[in-house]
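Reviewer 2 asked us to include a model.

Predict the structure of this chain.
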Amino acid sequence: MDTIFIIGIFLTFFLQFLLLSRKNKSLPDRILGIWMFVIGVHLFSYYIYHLGYWDKYPHLTGITHPFPLLHGPFLYLYVVFSVRKDQHFRPKDFWHFTPALLSYLYMIPYFFFYSEEKKRMVDSGELSDFRVFMLFSLFGFIVSGITYAILAFRLTKKLDEVIHDNFSYDEKINLNWLRYCILGMFGVFLTVGILSALQYLFKIQLPFNPDMVYYSEVILFIFFVGYFGIRHEGIFSENPESETTPSQPNTGNKPAGEYKKSGLKAVEASQLNQRLLALMDEKQYDKYEYNIKKDSFERPKSVYRMPMISYKIEF
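Predicted model (C-alpha cells):
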C-alpha cells in the first residue's frame, strides 16, 4: 500500500507540474494544476499520518483538515471555466472557498495555543474540545463534495443541450472528459458518506480502515485523470493550435497547399461535395456528425477528409 501512495503522490505533483509549466496556460489549466497540488499535499499529509509522524510531531495534525472542503469548489470551477467564455475570476467565484477559510479560522486556537501534548490528546480523542467541530466538518465534507459534483454535472448537461447542434465531435469528447472527472469525485464523496453513516449513525464496526478506502479511491481518480488526460484529451500537453499571436489570429482557414498530399482527386472531391449539398438540401445536416461517419464507412472515406473536400472546391 505504501508503494501505491508514493506513486499516487508523485503522479499528482507530476501532473501539476505539467499543467503549470505549459506555455499557453488557460484558466482551467491553472485551476486544475492548483487542484492537483492540493490533492498531492492532502495525500502526502495522510501518508505521513499513516507512517506515524503525527504522533512524533503533533504540530502536523490538523493542517490539512479543511482540505476536503476545497475539492468540490475546485472541481466545479474547473468545469465552469472550461465552458465559460469569460476566463476571469469574478468576486463571487471566491465565495466557494469560504467554508474552508472559516474552518481554518475556527482552528486558529488549536494551531497556535495548544501544546504538543494537548494536540496529541485531541487527535486521539482523549480531549473533546473539537469533537463537535469534527462531526460537523465530516458532514460538511460529504455535503460539499456531493453537491458540487451534482451542480457541475448539471452544468455539463445544460451545456450539452444548448450546443448539441453546434459543437464539434472533439468538443463533445471534452464534455465527456469533464463528466468522467465529476463522476469520479462524486464516487469518492459518496463512499465517504456511506461508510461514515455506517460508522456513526448505525454504529457498525467496519472490519477495515475506511480512510484507506477513501484515499485509495482518490489515487485511482488521479490515475484516471493522468491516463485519460494525457492519452486521449491532451489536457497535460501543449496544444499547437492555441499558440496564436495577435498579429496572426486563428481564423480557422487552412493554409494553401495543406491538403495537396491528401490523395483526394479534384473529380472525387467534386462528387462528394455534390453529395454533401444534396444531404444539406434534404436537411440531413441535423445529424451532421453521424451522417459523415456513416458515409465514410460506406465509401470508404475517412472523416478527416471532409475539410479537404471543402478546401479543394472552395465550398
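Residues 266-312 form one domain. The mean pLDDT is 80. We have added this to the supplementary material.
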